[in-house]
């Protein structure tokens, strides 16, 4: 099967011009677990912009895109509980052509069916950030993945980002008290709308602000921006036997010895680890089934804030420009 895709030959900076191009590629033959999907909408994540700059770790031509909602058009021989014509959502993998494509092949174990009542665009904004937040909170930090099943506090640095916006909502659903950082008026309002109990300013001293609110230590801390900048201060703030987690790589070595005498844990989360290493892949489909359930029950809100229509190199270039400005609140979705 041939599909039109938007891709590029080698990594590039937006300041050097638009090197996205339209290609026609032959999609791989379906294996027993695969689906072919006609994409309807895709969201743009920060990892898209990083991979576009480096051009590393993805097939050529580089076809990015992870979050997607699409219609199933073909089934592998061992696909269960999914039929041709079903609408599905998924976050994809770095190992195959992504969703900047009219059609793509995806492992059925990492998709979930999407009921008719849920909007295509609102759903397309969520898979990658929901899986990331879920894996961090419930698989890495050891919290219980159930409604009101936990007590205690979660502190999130960069609460207005894509993962932060979902982590706030998931943590509140799970029963936690949530403190998040935001600096601009709009981002503070957004974080409050997502459900944060308290909001503090990451441009000011975090420890002093938390102490003033009555917090001397915190059991669960999520660094979602500038890990090396916040690491030492968060080690000091972490409660004994607590969990300090991050999704953002560090530019310098982190001194994990700082956590030793507290029996503190440091948790990395990378959503593609499971599909990169073929580890517990089907769990991501189950996580997305929970997302669909929480959307239906209105216990999770979509983080969609902007839609751009179209399927062209110009549309994707514009979308990457908006995301790279770092002023974006919520998620941007391109609707094909």
Mind sketching the topology for me?
Blueprint (H helix, E strand, L loop, with lengths): L1 E6 L13 E6 L7 E11 L1 H9 L13 E8 L11 E4 L12 E5 L3 E3 L6 H5 L2 H14 L12 E5 L4 H12 L3 E5 L3 H10 L3 E3 L5 H7 L5 E6 L3 H11 E9 L18 E4 L4 H4 L5 H15 L7 E6 L3 H12 L6 E5 L1
Parallel strand pairs: 8-9, 8-11, 9-10, 11-12, 12-13, 14-15
Antiparallel strand pairs: 1-2, 3-4, 3-6, 3-15, 4-5, 5-7
Helix pairs in contact: 3-4, 3-9
What does this structure look like?
- The chain is an alpha/beta fold and 336 residues long.
- It has two domains: 2-126 and 273-335, Medium-chain alcohol dehydrogenases, catalytic domain (Quinone Oxidoreductase, Chain A, domain 1); 129-268, NAD(P)-binding Rossmann-like Domain (Rossmann fold, 3-Layer(aba) Sandwich), CATH 3.40.50.
- The protein has helices spanning 46-54, 120-124, 127-140, 162-173, 185-194, 206-212, 227-237, 273-276, 282-296, 313-324, and strands at 2-7, 21-26, 34-44, 68-75, 87-90, 103-107, 111-113, 153-157, 177-181, 198-200, 218-223, 238-246, 265-268, 304-309, 331-335.
- Helix 7 (227-237) links the parallel strand 11 (218-223) and strand 12.
- Helix 3 (127-140) crosses helix 9.
- The radius of gyration is 20 Å and the shape is globular.
- The relative contact order is 0.16.
């Amino acid at each position: 099967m041939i599909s039109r895709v938007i891709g590029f030959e080698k990594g590039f900076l937006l300041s050097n011009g638009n090197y996205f191009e339209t290609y026609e590629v032959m999609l791989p033959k379906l294996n027993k677990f695969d689906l072919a999907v006609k994409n309807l909408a895709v969201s743009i994540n920060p990892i898209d912009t990083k991979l576009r700059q480096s051009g590393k770790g993805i097939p050529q031509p580089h076809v990015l895109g992870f979050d997607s909602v699409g219609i199933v058009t073909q089934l592998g021989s061992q696909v269960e509980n999914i039929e041709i014509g079903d609408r599905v959502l998924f976050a994809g993998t770095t190992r195959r052509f992504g969703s900047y494509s009219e059609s793509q092949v995806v492992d059925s174990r990492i998709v979930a069916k999407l009921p008719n009542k849920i909007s295509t665009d609102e759903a397309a904004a969520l898979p990658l950030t929901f899986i990331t937040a879920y894996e961090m909170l419930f698989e890495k930090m050891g919290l219980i993945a159930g409604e009101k099943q936990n007590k205690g506090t979660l502190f999130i640095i960069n609460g207005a980002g894509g993962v932060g916006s979902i982590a706030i909502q998931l943590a509140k659903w799970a029963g936690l008290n949530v403190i998040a950082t935001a600096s601009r008026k709009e981002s503070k309002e957004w974080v409050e709308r997502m459900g944060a109990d308290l909001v503090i300013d990451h441009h000011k001293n975090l420890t002093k602000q938390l102490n003033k609110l009555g917090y001397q230590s915190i059991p669960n801390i999520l660094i979602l921006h500038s890990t090396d900048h916040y690491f030492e201060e968060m080690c000091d703030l972490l409660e004994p036997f607590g969990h300090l987690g991050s999704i953002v790589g560090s530019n310098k070595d982190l001194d994990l010895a700082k956590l030793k005498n507290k029996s503190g844990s440091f948790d990395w989360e990378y959503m593609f680890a499971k599909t990169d290493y073929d580890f517990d892949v089907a769990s991501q489909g189950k996580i997305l089934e929970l997302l669909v359930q929480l959307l239906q029950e209105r216990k999770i809100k979509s983080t969609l804030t902007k839609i751009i229509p179209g399927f062209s190199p110009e549309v994707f270039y514009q979308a990457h420009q908006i995301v790279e400005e770092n002023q974006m609140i919520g998620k941007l979705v391109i609707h094909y």
